[in-house]
Amino acid sequence: MTDTLVLNAKTRSDIGKGASRRLRREQNLIPAVVYGTDKPATSLTFDHNKVIKFLESEAVYSSILTINIDGTPEQVVLKDLQRHPFKPKVLHMDFMRIDANAKIHMNVPLHFTNQDKAPGVIEGGVASHLMTEVEVICLPKDLAEFIEINIEALGMDASIHLSEVALPSGIELAIFSHGEDSQDPAVVSIHKPRAVVEETDETAAEGEEATAGEEGDAKAEGEEKGESGDKSA
User: Fold this and answer.
1) Alpha carbon separation from 200 to 132, 203, 205, 207 (Å, rounded)
2) Distance CA 107, CA 135 (A)
3) DSSP 117
4) 34 φ, ψ (degrees, to nearest 5)
5) Which of 80, 98, 127, 134 could form a disulfide bond with 94, CB atoms 3.0-4.6 angstroms apart?
6) Residues 144-189: pLDDT tens digits?
7) Which segments within 98-182 are labelled E, that is strand?
């Protein structure tokens, strides 16, 4: 376990909304709770400045963490994080203890690689990341920090679906745990930019109008000539 995934905490006995507000306002502390593995839930506090630095690592959100509670380490995962709606402040954190022998459900980020090498992108297409994370089920030891999706072979108007994603060993996708009726959504696709498509359609429409106009003018000119010939006769 690296130091970046270790955070120190202290237990607290004063609970409730009023106590939490005082902790945040007067001591710059974050109220939190840790629960799970048939142990009683424990109320905690964390140093706000250290938590802000801690959360800069993407790995925090999809890794097994160590929180030292009054010096005693606990293996946990971060289950919920409440932020202030517009200030750069964390209001509350929820952690869940892990059991090495029990599977956990976690959201893991998706990393897309070799996008610049994809034939569809080289041809002028734009890669759309339709999903940025996915829920996985696995034992704690198998939890991946992220899942990599190589789109090097993806062509124009093509997509990659979840069922086609190569998963790390020991990991299954939660969406496919519901049986044969499970959906298989696309994860990434490549298409021409909409502006280009609209411009192409508009150009084609203008061309059709111009052609129709030319044909109409020619027809009108023919009719005029015909009428003049009839009068001279």
Assistant:
1) 31, 5, 9, 11
2) 4
3) G
4) -125, 135
5) 80
6) 999 999 999 999 999 999 999 999 999 999 999 877 667 899 999 9
7) 104-113, 126-129, 133-138, 147-150, 158-161, 172-173
On the CB side of 57, CA atoms within 13 Å amount to 18
- 14 band by pLDDT with thresholds 50, 70 and 90: confident
Q: Which helix (H) or strand (E) holds 179?
A: none
d(CA 102, CA 83): 29
Tell which wins on pLDDT, 210 or 130: 130
Which position has the token pair 């001279």? 232
Reduced to 3 states (helix: H, G, I; strand: E, B; else coil), residue 113 is strand
Q: Which class for 44: exposed (0-12), middle (13-18), buried (19 or more C-beta within 10 A)?
A: buried
Nearest CA to 33 among 12, 63, 54, 55? 12
Q: How far apart are CA 169 and CA 137, in angstroms?
A: 11
Quote the mean pLDDT of the chain.
87
